Amino acid sequence: MLPFRVINQKTIEQILDMKSVIEKVEQAYTLKAQQEATLFPLVFHEFEPGKADMDIKSGHLTGANIFGMKLVSWFGGNTEKNLPQLIGTVMVLDSRTGVPKGILSGEHITCMRTGAAGGIGAKYLARPESEHLLVIGSGHQAPFQILATLVSMENVKKVSVYNARSYERAEAFCEKIQEKLLNMIALQFNDQDELRETYSKRCQIEFVPVENIEQTTREADIIITATSARQPLIQKDWVKPGTHITCIGADMEGKQEIDERLFPGARVFVDDVTQSVNVGELETAIKKAIVTPEVIVAEIGEVILGRVAGRQSAVEITIFDSTGIAIQDLLTADLVLAEAEKLGAGTVVEL
Amino acid sequence: MLPFRVINQKTIEQILDMKSVIEKVEQAYTLKAQQEATLFPLVFHEFEPGKADMDIKSGHLTGANIFGMKLVSWFGGNTEKNLPQLIGTVMVLDSRTGVPKGILSGEHITCMRTGAAGGIGAKYLARPESEHLLVIGSGHQAPFQILATLVSMENVKKVSVYNARSYERAEAFCEKIQEKLLNMIALQFNDQDELRETYSKRCQIEFVPVENIEQTTREADIIITATSARQPLIQKDWVKPGTHITCIGADMEGKQEIDERLFPGARVFVDDVTQSVNVGELETAIKKAIVTPEVIVAEIGEVILGRVAGRQSAVEITIFDSTGIAIQDLLTADLVLAEAEKLGAGTVVEL
Which Pfam families match (chains A, B) (predicted)? Predict the structure, then answer.
């Protein structure tokens, strides 16, 4: 019988703070760059095309002695059933013995590690003096992108939020986001007064719904796209020199958020070359032969390690195509397991 | 928050009886034959070639409204660490909503469903009057093969057990097998006196360690191979007309238990054509061009459904190449979950 820890979403929300998750996701990227991480082939199945699917992403982190998988279900019809559309679980195992360490609710881990990716993109590729963040998308992921960027970029003092379908939703988002961020921070740093104070102050900035996306794009220093769009929402001509763009949304064939003509001439980084080329924001640009995969300067881990320069001038456009990789989830989940063990949180079952 | 049931090995040992598992595995085979089951691509990773690996087998059973996966780790060095070499978990989800139903210890489920496969091979392909079962291999899987065959074949009254490396181990196995079977039956039918009685009586037969494998093969009616062999242990010339052979061991490239020359002229069935051809007992025969995949008459589900005849004469040799498919585990695990819910067994966690 082997002890096995089960951790639900509520516990994870209490345990994970964005600063620690950013560290873990950076570690995931650098382990990958050091060949101490392997992604296994993706398993993807559509139950009903466009309505319900599932995928299993798995991998091994030699550098952290863990392997495991994340299984995510997406069922579009769940809303009517009062169930979440996206449901995920992450299982972590010890790669020295194969023993399962635990299973965790996957939603909050995914939100946090995806937010962290956006923060890391800005941290390593945006101009340090960047003041204005434009977030494309006002859905579930947007608050995590904002929090991670605020944690990573000390000069950001204005956040514009764009919803391509509805100005009203962006407006409603902006009305509530400060309270939401403060609640997240209060939970995340509930026993660390100083950090809670620091990050709470960080949220005392301007949140503005976007009416004119062209105009706001012309003013933004950092753009993060986090939508499920299949058509570009940002045109090349709108983007000013020196802008950094992180593309979060594209993670399967056919998804696209930015004008593919932005890639030629930009300094482009990815989390995983294979995924970016096949299912990331780069997919369309490559399929349309606007660029070849050689446009990719490096995986972001190389920049974090200092092996490859990130931004090289104040006027170039940098792009980080983040598709999401299982090892981000695994390292984040392993952090939760370690903290939960210290706190005696979660349910321990003898398997 | 979603309720999620965690079930450990001990509970599974109490819940699962071989008769019910045979029914579930037959259902898995027939759903597959009716195109109501899909196997997803296998994920396989070697941590250290020949020393440690893991695989993720997953699939969907439309006919049973479930999907899920089994993750199995094999770490050869675990024995020194007082840990099992093989460790597995099975996760079952509802395929109408994507909601995880539970996670279960995988070892006993695997043993039971693999035993059931052997029983089903004999039930549908052996001569009904078969009296003598020869089991090749005296390891962990052997008792399950024996129990399933005794449950399925009422005339079997002698079981010979062969260990290619050590007669002593086969001898020790035979000394203890009756007690072991009675214990399993007592657990499995602990609240069903009549069945417990019936099956306990069924074990009052002869168990004989094999000294001369050629001689015993010539006498056997049913042969089940359950080893990790990479060289044939049964030669073609030894096998008498009318014998049924179920090959359990071969489930990855390079494994082989019976003389590949047994396939031409035999009536051959498999659990899954792709797996048998690529990693099953058939692999070597096909690679050596002794037969083509056309030697496969059908998947066993077709026989269970009565769409394809199994054995057609008392003198032909029948072979069932069982490689093991995820949907066997999923249906068996789902049975455990249903029973556990009735009994209030296992640990329920809100995810």
Answer: OCD_Mu_crystall (PF02423)
Q: Which residues of A66-105 are buried (b: 16+ CB within 10 A; e: fewer)?
A: bbbbbbbbbbeebeeeebbbbbbbbbbbbbebbbbbbbbb
pLDDT one-digit tens code per residue, B94-128: 999 999 999 999 999 999 999 999 999 999 999 99
Q: How would you classify the pairing of strands B86-94 and A3-7? A: unpaired
pLDDT (tens digit per residue) in A273-305: 999 999 999 999 999 999 999 999 999 999 999
User: How much is the CA Rg of chain A, to the nearest whole Å?
Assistant: 19
Q: Which amino acid is at A180?
A: K
Largest CA distance in chain B: 62
Q: Which of B4, B9, B56 sits opposite A69 (nearest CB)?
A: B56
Please give the Cα distance from A195 to B267 (Å, whole number): 72
Helix (H, G, I), strand (E, B) or coil at A271: coil
Contact (Cβ atoms closer than 8 angstroms) between residue A340 and residue A7: yes
pLDDT tens digits, one per residue of A320-336: 999 999 999 999 999 99
CATH number for the region A121-321 comes to: 3.40.50.720
Q: Do B65 and A89 touch, CB atoms closer than 8 A?
A: no
What CATH number is given for A3-109+326-350 in this structure?
Answer: 3.30.1780.10
Q: Which residues contact B323 (CB under 8 A, 6 or more apart)?
A: B250, B251, B270, B271, B272, B275, B276, B279, B280
Q: Do B100 and A93 touch (CB under 8 A)?
A: no
Interchain CB distance below 8 Å, B43 and A41: yes
CB proximity B82 to A under 8 Å: no
The angle subtended at Cα B72 by Cα B68 and Cα B77, nearest 5°, is: 170
CA angle B22, B26, B28 (to 5 degrees): 115
The string of pLDDT tens digits covering residues A16-50 is 999 999 999 999 999 999 999 999 999 999 999 98
Report the pLDDT averaged over residues B183-202. 89
Between positions 24 and 43 of A, the ones with CB within 8 A of B are 38, 40-41, 43
Distance CA A135, CA A150 (A): 12
CATH fold group of domain B116-321: Rossmann fold (3.40.50)
DSSP helix/strand/coil, A286? helix
Chain B residues closer than 8 Å to A3 by CB? none
Q: Where are the domains of chain B?
A: 3-109+326-350, 116-321
